[in-house]
Amino acid sequence: TCGKKSGVQHVYIVWCDLSEEPPSSQSFFEGSNGSNLRNSSATKKNIFNRSHINIMKMEKDSLNSRFLPISGLQTDGVFMVDDDVRVDCLSLKRGFEAWKQHSDALVGYYPRWHEQNGKEIIYHTYLKSMLKNKLSIILTKASFLHSKYLELYSNENHPQEIKDYVDANRNCEDIAMAMIVANSTKHARGTSSYPVYVEGNVWDKGLFGGISTGSGHFQSRTTCLTEISKIYEQKGWGDPLFDVTLTDQTWRQHFPGYWWQVRPSNLFEWFPSADFFM
To answer: What is the band of 26 on the pLDDT scale with cuts at 50, 70, 90?
Structure first.
């Protein structure tokens, strides 16, 4: 519904359901009764706001597929979003403005933080990130990134064992992407390379039945961080992730800038998870 007026030129849907054929692009403009929304009186005036829709049918059901380079892509900026996440139009525009100022960074609505604890790297959710005022990861479930990172993720220089790990665990492709962005910019750490958090209004239906709600999710994320970091160490690249101050890297600055003034983009981010008690 945001469309071109919010900067959305083209929508690409990655279709990984091998058991079902994807719907037609036209079906996204039809009502539940099959009526054509393009021809309704309420939407005719908005016809020029419609973004073009392409459905990319995948040959493999893999979370890595979301980061495949997009043939014919004409923009540098890509907004990556899960199918169970909704971002309102004003928040989308605000995020795009933030990304244009920090185009080498991951810019988005879900900030996370990692912490070294002996040989383990602990994954921390929003509440711990906010309380410690630290940020090192932006989740790609709703984020802006430069299209060049799609190539970096998918090409042969990105270790195949990382992509195999994502496939085997059906998790952690977002952490893998965060590491690629951090690794590619760590030698030129201007402000444009730091992750940027954008306060917005986001509805996440995946909170009620998605991958992130499964038992053991928090521990699996910690294991993921630890294992992928080991691969980076084996390649001689070192740990790519680094801490920044959350309040400094929040796009909407609050006066006088205390840590407790930062708010989450989703109400349920306030609820403590397993890492809160660690």
So the answer is: confident
Cβ burial, residue 88 (10 Å; 0-12/13-18/19+): middle
Q: Which of 84, 104, 164, 174 is catalytic?
A: 174
Please list the alpha-helical segments (H only) found in 45-135.
Answer: 89-101, 126-132
Which residues, listed in sequence order, are joined to residue 209 by a DSSP beta bridge? Answer: none
CB of 156 closer than 8 Å to CB of 74: no
Active-site residue flag, 174? yes
3-state secondary structure of 193: helix
User: Within 10 Å of residue 137's Cβ, how many Cβ atoms?
Assistant: 26
pLDDT in tens, 33-83: 555 555 555 555 567 788 899 999 999 999 999 999 999 999 999 999 999
pTM: 0.90
For residue 178, the surrounding DSSP H or E stretch is helix 173-185
> How many other CB atoms are there within 10 angstroms of residue 15's CB atom?
16
Query: Could you report how far apart the first and last alpha carbons of the chain are, in Å?
Result: 41
